[in-house]
Give the backbone structure.
Amino acid sequence: MHGMPLAPEKHFKSLLYDEIKSLDRPVSDDEIRNICLHLFECYSSSYTQLLEGKHLDKIESQKEMNFRFCEQNYKRWRPAFDLLHIIISISIETGSIFCDNFKIKVNEENRVLFDVMLRLHARACMTANEVLCLLESGFPDGAFARWRALHEIAVIGLFIVARGNECAKSYRDHAAIGKYLHMKAHDSYKLKLKAPGPTEEQLENAERRFKILKERYGKGFDKDYGWAGPFLGLKDNNNVRFNEIEKVVKLDQMRPYYRWASQVVHPCSTGTYEQMGLLETDEDIILTGRSDGGMIVPSHSLAISLSQVVLALLRVDNNLEIYMSMTVLDHLNEKLGEELHRC
């Protein structure tokens, strides 16, 4: 067998040429394909080692470039990014206040509502941090895609608060529906996934709980938003959609941004040809990495949606400290909008 030089592509062509030449006759396309497959099999390990070594050499310089980019990106957007850090910090602090009051004010009539909102608020703060991390790293499209989840948390939180403790119970119990459907899907594909699925006992217990909840809550509870159906007054609980919940809490004005973010989440053509990271240029660039453009919409959207989740807490617990936090967040959101357009 031939040794493997530092230029595997050229060497492969040379090997292919030698193999074909050794046959000393015309070779069909199918035969060439079979020879290629044989050569790939023989040299796959060597190719892997060479390419791995080649790209390992690039890692340090790539890290240095990324570090320098993040420094410049932060320098440009520092006033806005700092405000976002403050907004998130105040929101987390407000959640701590809510948690302390939860221990004092909780009773059987509001226990589940308090618990659900505490967890949704914590999830919102974590998601907001993820969005900010992507912004600071130069990924505005990824940040906007992640904001989509933050908007959904705000909508769901405000809806549950408006409908009360029974709605919170329905939302909480629906977790078992999602868990069972996930376990069932994993079990169906465990061989292809090459990952162990749930045990038979785990699947049986989850299915038993699934059936109990379907019987308790009725038709359509096993759908994605089945938990919300009874609180929307819909005749058909099988087709509850997120935008219907969005309208109830009067956040449907965010629908254009939500659709825009969805184009980033899904591989539709609009999200492929029109990227947020390229909003500041008219050049036909195919973006594979970081950009310092397109930060305004995802940054302001982050602040607005996180404030809406804090507003949901205020509607559960009309506490003076939470009210003060909400007032401060409103002022900071206005200031953020001004700073974003100055950067």
Notes: The mean pLDDT is 90. The first helix runs from residue 8 to 23. The two ends are 61 Å apart (CA to CA). Residues 77-342 form one domain.
